[in-house]
Amino acid sequence: RALPxxxxxxxxxxxxxxxxxxxxxxxxxxxxxxxxxxxxxxEVALEKxxxxxxxxxxxxxxxxxxxxxxxxxxxxxxxxxxLDERYAGPPRIECLNFxxxxxxxxxxxxxxxxxxxxFAPDLIVLQLCLNDPYPSDxxxxxxxxxxxxxxxxxxxxxxxxxxxxxxxxxERFWDDEGEARMRRGLEGFAxxxxxxxxxLVVLFxxxxxxxxxxxxxxxxHEFVAGTAARVGLPLVDLYDAFASAGFLDExxxxxxxxxxxxxxxxxxxxxxxxxxxxxxxxASAERPxxxxxARQPESxxxxxxxxxxxxxx
Length: 313
Hints:
- The protein is α/β, with parallel strands linked by helices and 313 residues long.
- 34% of the residues lie in helices and 12% in strands.
- It has helices spanning 61-64, 75-86, 105-114, 150-159, 161-169, 176-195, 210-213, 218-231, 239-244, 261-277, and strands at residues 11-13, 21-23, 28-29, 32-33, 52-58, 92-97, 123-128, 199-203, 235-237.
- Strand 1 (11-13) and strand 2 form a beta hairpin.
- The protein starts with 10 loop residues before the first strand and ends in a 36-residue tail after the last helix.
C-alpha cells in the first residue's frame, strides 16, 4: 500500500538516522496537532521563560497518543491540570510532550540528547512500556525479529490468539539484542542525568493479568528495575497501581498496551504522588492544603485532597 505524500503524514522519515522517523512539524489532522518543533503539544517557546519549571516527557505512543486517546485525556495533560491546581508558583510548572508513536528506547535517548535538552528542562520523565527495546513496526523501521517458523506463528495465532498477541506486542522484543538495547538506553539516560536534569523512569504494564501469572511477564519488569537500579535511575513501576485498580482483569482488552482515559488519570495520580514524595517538584510553589474534618458542612469542604484511584469504566 502506497504512503501518502510526506506533507500529509503525521509520522515522517527523519534526517537523523538514529531517530529513523519523527513527527511532522506543523501537521494537523484526526483531531491531533504537531507543533513547529515536531512535538505532540501546543506551541511552546524554545527558550524557557523566567519563572518556569519544565518537565519534559519522552516516550512512545502512551505519551504521544496519536490516534488513541484525545489529547486532554492523556496522562501528561491530566498531570498538567493537577499541577496547575496544586502549584500556584512561582515557578510555574510546564509539562512538555516529546512522545512519538512507535519509538524504542534508543530513539528516545537520541531525542533527549539532541532536541529535548534545547528546551532546558528541569526534569525528564522517561515513559517506557514492554515493547520499547526496539522501535515498533513502521514503514521506516525494522522492529523486533519474528519467530523464523512462519507455520508456528500461524498456528499460534489461530489456536492461542491471546498468546500470539502477547508474543507480537511483547515477547519478541526481548531477545538478546533487545535486552542489550534496553541496557544501552538506560545507561545513556543515566549519563544524561549525571550531567544534566534528573531523569525519572516510569514503566507501564501490559494490560492483562494472565501474561504475568502464566507467561512470566514479570521478568521484563525485573529487568528494567534491575538495570535502572544498577545505573542509578529512579523507577516508578505502575504495575501494582493498575493491578490494584482492576485494570488488568478484563479478559480480552481491545488494546493491551494502551490504557483508556481512566488509566491515564490513574497514571497521572501516581506520578504526581511520586514526584512530590521524591522531592522532584519545586516545593516553594505548592499551594497549602487545607485538611478537612468530618464535622464541616459540605459547602465548606476543600476539593484538593488526595485523589482516589479510579476503576475502569
